[in-house]
Design a protein that fits this description.
heterodimer; A: 940 residues; mainly alpha; Serine Threonine Protein Phosphatase 5, Tetratricopeptide repeat; B: 5-stranded antiparallel β-sheet; 12 helices; 60% helix; elongated
């Protein structure tokens, strides 16, 4: 880049020699014969006539004669002539000769025209592009005091260009800046700015450069092609050096190629038109040359630009990367999005899609990220980023514990094409691993095991292989497939001596052995674990498990201390616990053992020990429950009741302190069994008082106290209270298992299906460990029954029985099961189910009668009339008193009907007569119907 | 120096030539059809304007028939620019108000004073006098002589309403201008910027962020909108709790736009972020102690 200074081509005003010399006339070309005065006059005249060629020999002659003079006048004459000679050479275009003379001038004294001489020299060197000389001269020029503004401007302009040409980047900036600020020519301003930017880029003076950016972008300088190429190159270098902010600001300045080319074409057109016009008008050769040079420069840079491969997308992509890198995520996102939307199928489009998703995750726009991933997978199930994107989405959902969303991606994983690429294989293994984890956490252990199996069988080099073996073992174990699980845990131990799960796999080995009922092996594994890993997070559980084993052993004469060993293990379990849950398990298991041994004081001591150890984290309510139980056994009923009341009051406002509900039930039980009517009423009054004084904000506690009060007043009032809660549309957030169970029962009583389902869902979701959860199962079973969804009925009963087995309160489940099987015409199964009721002593009562009657119905349904009759007969013979004789009455009637079916009308009449004579049934509402029937037969 | 005195002095600096008598103002009267006269605007009498060409008795012209009055006002534009660069907004407003006062009674007639009104519009907005900015902007918007200025006035109408917290009115205005439609990557930076500001007002920060990010990402060579957009970016990142991101933008603002209004505001924002960080840390440490 080369351009002019303001004095270029400027005709210096003639400085008359007459100032120094008297006038004279030159008459001949041979100046040797002329006297000095005539010589001077002759030269002066020719200079005034602008006859520079003619003046030169005269001036040379004068200098020859005066050059060696030492007196002031002689020296002055020689210097003046040197200056004028140089000027004459410049005028005739012999700049080199002029520069030589100026050199002499500047080496001698006096130098009255020194500034002008320097400017001329600089100009001379500018023409010959001797930049070092220009630098030297313009620097010297700038040292003069009292320079005119034009001189300062010109000197800076020359110096700036010289430094720029000499690649003295830092030094070029200041003089060019001065020139840019002070020129009135926009073209010079623009060129200076471009050189400044280039110099600052080369000097890596970023801060200063970025200060210039807003200025440059207000002018057309931004369209300069070489400037844009420089910025792009510098941006790349800075990006590669991880100088992201610099790179960003550089890249951001780069304009699209089309814009640059359009501007260059426009500029070329303007220049050519102007040049043609000026050529017709007639302009200096130097000007023409300069204009042509500018045109050539633009054309050359245009060619360079046209030869470049497309850079816009790459620059946009880089800018996006930088934005994301410097945490300006949204700016990055919109750029990537634009690239992706512009061309979804190009390599950069797909890469942008990937980047955009990464950014969306960074800014927690999860829905948009997932939407984008799923769209991509739908469009390109085998796309190059399919595995990566699936992996991102799965990982994110795993982290956020959205396990169902993880497993929902399985079809996409299965649609991925086979690959041999190592990276892709590794990603694929990741996908199966995460999928398996999704299943594991969703409690779909079977599918989890399958996915771990896929990894184990197909990705032998995966970094997850060992983990997969361990977790497949877990999946088997949680399906109670202990033999398979054991195999994996043993394999893990054998192959991963220092593996992350080595301790856990030994512990699980013990659990599996226990599940396989190889108790000795289990105990050995737990013992081995305790010895090897005394401080592991599972050590407490190992002690508890070994305690359970010891507690389950029969004490013998040879080994009478099993319970003592169990207790010792449980205590260790409490000590070694790393979580309140581990400690609670050990503590309450130990309490059960003490209970077996009637060691009530020990229970109290242990619970206090446990509460001291875990303080606020302890399950205090449960502990208080145990203490209360022990106190009751020790005859300290009053203390127990007080402890219960205190615990309810203290923890009752936290809905998730489920021990409080347990205490409420226990309090009711204690009141019913150990308190006099008077004391019970006193207790109710105490609760009422507490309810009166309670802080209104303690809504959960209030509800619990109300439940306790209702329950203390009997089942009917409790049931009515449950109905009230239902009626009042109580906010479920305030409810706890005690109130929920009353509400579930109320929903069943009034047949409100919607509530049955809602309460069940809430109960299960919030209190799945509650002892009262069976009320929820009962409600949902009634719901399915009302819907005639018999499979649903059997499934919910199955679940309920899985959790609560044959507890005294679970008789309803077995009867329902049998009734449903009967309704499904599965009479054999139904009879078996009815029969099973009779096997549970705790269910003795009306349930027995109902079961026996059901068995009769089953036989009747298959036409086995005799057997049916026999069952009905047993109902009225064995269970007369149940349900006010209802079952007996039903038994009589059913037996009579069977006898009629068998053709034994007489027998039937006798049976009905017997019913009317039976004191348990003759007042039953059904008796009236029998009387009418007998009248018809005329038997009575 | 008292403000009024100073303003008066400043007006003197600005105005290089004003009619010596406030009632007579040098102007060119342009009537429909291109007819024009140079002379003095003598007075205003309701709907009538008295205009004298000097040679004859003043003529009376219906104010609503005048196409344009070109007043001879020599306000030192360079000086205004310099003071604007120095962010001496209040002083410029005071000086311009004073300088334009003699012309106030002709403000309903299209004139060359509109360019000064546009400066006032911008400055009132910058000094948060949104009602005044809105009032001027609405007046400029009705003047159809300069579509570019009209556009600018629409921008300031919208910005004034938004910054005054009048979201419903702003929404109506944007709908009227059609600026609530098609907010794509290729939309004009001012449209995206204004929509982003409205989203901020409605506390829809993620939407705001996406819009303003488009201004920054797709208009990085637009010196007019980049500065405010980058500041808005920093503000919205702060609202989103993305303090690192906000600080990165602030760093860039101080690098690129040193000694500008945006830089000042960015530095204030930086202090606020430090406070927010400290608050956050305090809350977190309190929570961890509670746990």
């Amino acid at each position: 880049m080369k351009f002019l200074c303001r004095s270029y081509g400027h005709a210096f005003k003639a400085t008359l020699l007459a100032v120094a010399f008297s006038t004279g006339i030159a008459v001949a070309q041979d100046y040797s014969s002329l006297g000095i005065t005539d010589l001077v006059s002759s030269a002066d005249r020719m200079l005034q006539r602008r006859d520079f060629d003619g003046a030169i020999p005269a001036l040379v002659e004068i200098i020859n004669r005066t050059g060696s003079l030492t007196d002031p006048q002689g020296r002055d004459t020689a210097q003046t002539c040197r200056f004028q000679l140089a000027r004459a050479y410049y005028q005739i275009g012999n700049t080199a000769a002029g520069v030589e003379i100026l050199d002499d001038y500047l080496a001698n004294e006096p130098r009255k025209k020194e500034r002008m001489a320097l400017r001329m020299m600089a100009q001379g060197f500018f023409d010959t592009q001797e930049w070092e000389k220009i630098e030297e001269i313009s620097t010297r020029l700038l040292t003069f005091p009292d320079l005119s503004r034009e001189d300062i401007y010109n000197a800076n302009l020359l110096l700036g260009q010289a430094c720029f040409r000499l690649e003295k980047w830092a030094e070029a900036v200041e003089p060019l800046g001065y020139a840019a600020r002070n020129t009135k020519d926009p073209r010079v301003e623009g060129l200076c700015q471009i050189m400044i930017v280039r110099a600052l880029v080369e000097a890596e003076s970023w801060r200063e450069l970025f200060g210039w950016i807003p200025q440059i972008y207000r002018t057309d300088s931004k369209y300069d092609i070489s400037l844009n190429l420089t910025l792009m190159k510098a941006g790349k270098a800075q990006f590669e050096a991880d100088e992201f902010l610099n790179a960003l600001l550089l890249y951001r300045m780069v304009l699209p190629r089309e814009e640059l080319l359009a501007f260059a074409d426009e500029r070329l057109n303007d220049l050519n038109v102007k040049l043609d016009a000026d050529l017709k008008r007639g302009i200096a050769e130097a000007e023409i040359e300069e204009r042509r040079s500018e045109i050539t420069d633009i054309e050359a840079s245009k060619t360079t630009l046209e030869e470049l491969p497309p850079y816009e997308d790459e620059v946009t992509f880089r800018i996006g990367q930088i934005y994301a890198e410097v945490k300006r995520y949204w700016e990055g996102y919109v750029l990537f999005d634009k690239l992706y939307q512009t061309d979804r199928n190009s390599e950069i489009g797909e890469a942008s899609m990937l980047q955009s998703v990464l950014v969306l995750y960074d800014i927690e726009q999860i829905d948009r990220a997932e939407e984008r991933i799923l769209l991509y997978l739908a469009e390109k199930p085998d796309g190059q980023y399919a595995r990566t994107l699936l992996s991102m989405m799965m990982r994110d959902n795993l982290v956020r514990q959205n396990f169902s969303s993880v497993v929902e991606l399985r079809p996409h994983v299965e649609m991925l094409p086979a690959t041999q690429d190592e990276d892709e294989l590794s990603l694929q293994a990741d996908l199966h691993f995460m999928l398996a984890f999704g299943y594991l956490q969703s409690k779909d252990y079977k599918s989890a095991g399958e996915q771990f199996g896929v990894l184990i069988n197909n990705f032998k080099t995966s970094s997850h292989l060992a983990d997969a073996v361990y977790y497949r073992g877990m999946s088997f174990m949680l399906q109670a497939k202990y033999a398979d699980a054991l195999e994996d845990f043993l394999k893990y131990q054998a192959e991963n001596e220092f593996g992350e799960h080595i301790a856990a796999s030994l512990f699980r080995e013990g659990v599996c052995q226990y599940g396989l009922e190889d108790i000795d092996a289990a105990q050995a594994a737990f013992t081995s674990f305790i010895e090897k890993y005394p401080d592991d997070a599972l050590t407490s559980e190992a002690y508890s498990m070994r305690g359970d084993i010891e507690a389950s052993k029969e004490a013998t004469t040879e080994d009478p201390y099993t319970l003592d060993r169990a207790l010792a293990d449980y205590r260790k379990g409490i000590d070694k616990a790393t979580s309140p849950l581990q400690s609670a398990y050990a503590a309450f298991q130990a309490a059960k053992v003490y209970k077996l041994e009637f060691k009530w004081q020990e229970i109290i001591d242990l619970m206090n020990y446990y509460m001291d150890r875990w303080e606020e984290e302890a399950n205090v309510a449960e502990a208080v429950f145990w203490i209360g139980q022990a106190q009751i056994e020790l005859g300290q009923v009053g203390d127990a009741v007080t402890a219960y009341l205190n615990a309810i009051e203290r923890f009752g406002n936290d809905p998730f302190q489920q021990g409080v509900d347990k205490i409420i039930l226990e309090l009711v039980k204690v009141a019913n069994t150990h308190l006099s009517t008077e004391d019970r009423e006193g207790l109710v009054i105490k609760l009422k008082l507490k309810l009166t004084n309670i802080d209104l904000r303690y809504e959960v506690l209030r509800l619990r106290l109300q439940v306790a009060e209702a329950m203390l007043q009997g089942d009917d009032i409790a049931a009515a209270f449950g109905a009230e809660l239902l009626e009042a549309d109580t906010d479920l957030k305030l409810t706890t298992p005690a109130s929920l169970s009353l509400m579930c029962d109320a929903a069943v009583d009034i047949g409100n299906q919607e509530e049955m389902q809602r309460l069940y869902n809430y109960f299960i979701e919030n209190y799945e460990d509650s002892d009262l959860l069976w009320h929820a199962y009962r409600a949902i079973t009634y719901f399915h029954l009302a819907e005639k969804n018999y499979d649903g009925v059997l499934a919910s009963i199955d679940e309920a029985q899985g959790l609560f087995g044959a507890e005294p309160f679970m008789g309803w489940a077995q009867i329902f099961k049998a009734d449903t099987e009967y309704k499904m015409n599965n009479f054999t199964e139904a009879e078996d189910s009815y029969n099973m009721v009779m096997g549970v002593a705790e269910w003795r009562g009306p349930l027995f009668a109902e079961a026996m009657f059901g068995m009769g119905n089953c036989r009747l349904a298959v036409g086995d009339l005799e057997a049916a009759h026999s069952f009905y007969q047993r109902v009225y013979l064995l269970f007369k008193s149940y349900a006010d004789g209802d079952w007996a009455a039903k038994g009589y009637l059913a037996a009579a009907d069977v006898l009629i079916k068998m053709g034994d009308d007489e027998g039937a009449i006798n049976t009905l007569k017997a019913m009317l004579e039976d004191e348990y049934t003759n007042t039953n509402p059904l008796a009236e119907q029998v009387r009418i029937q007998l009248k018809k037969y005329g038997g009575q | 120096m008292k403000k009024s005195v100073f303003s008066f002095a400043l007006a003197g600096v600005f105005i290089l030539g004003v009619a010596s008598e406030a009632a007579s103002l040098q102007a060119e009267l342009i009537m429909p059809g291109g007819r024009s006269w140079k002379g003095l605007v003598v007075s205003r009498d309701g709907d009538w304007v008295e205009f004298s060409t000097g040679a004859t008795k003043p003529i009376r012209v219906g104010a609503d028939t005048i196409e344009e009055l070109v007043f001879e006002v020599n306000i030192d534009q360079e000086k205004i620019n310099e003071m604007n660069r120095n962010r001496e907004y209040e002083r410029i407003i005071a000086a311009l108000d004073s300088a334009l006062e003699p012309y106030a009674e002709y403000s309903d007639i299209p004139s060359n004073l509109v360019k000064y009104n546009s400066i006032l519009m911008e400055l009132h907005y910058k000094t948060k006098n949104y009602d005044k900015a809105l009032e001027i902007a609405q007046k400029i918007a009705m003047d159809e002589r300069d579509p570019e200025l009209q556009d600018q006035s629409r921008v300031y109408q919208a910005l004034s309403l938004i910054d005054a917290g009048r979201s419903e009115a702003a929404e109506e205005l944007l709908a009227e201008f059609g600026w609530d439609q098609d907010l794509s990557d290729d939309s004009s930076p001012q449209k995206l910027y204004i929509a982003a500001k409205l989203m901020v007002l409605k506390e829809r920060y993620a939407d705001a962020m996406e819009l303003v990010a488009k201004v920054v990402a797709f208009n990085s060579q637009d010196p007019e909108w980049m500065q405010p957009a980058e500041l808005l970016c920093a503000e919205v990142y702060t609202e989103l709790g993305m303090y690192d991101s906000a600080e990165e933008v602030i760093r860039e603002i101080s690098l690129l736009y040193k000694n500008t209004n945006e830089d000042d505001l960015a530095q204030q924002l930086k202090i606020r972020i430090e406070e927010l960080r400290a608050e956050k840390e305090l809350i977190e440490s309190t929570e961890s102690e509670e746990v």
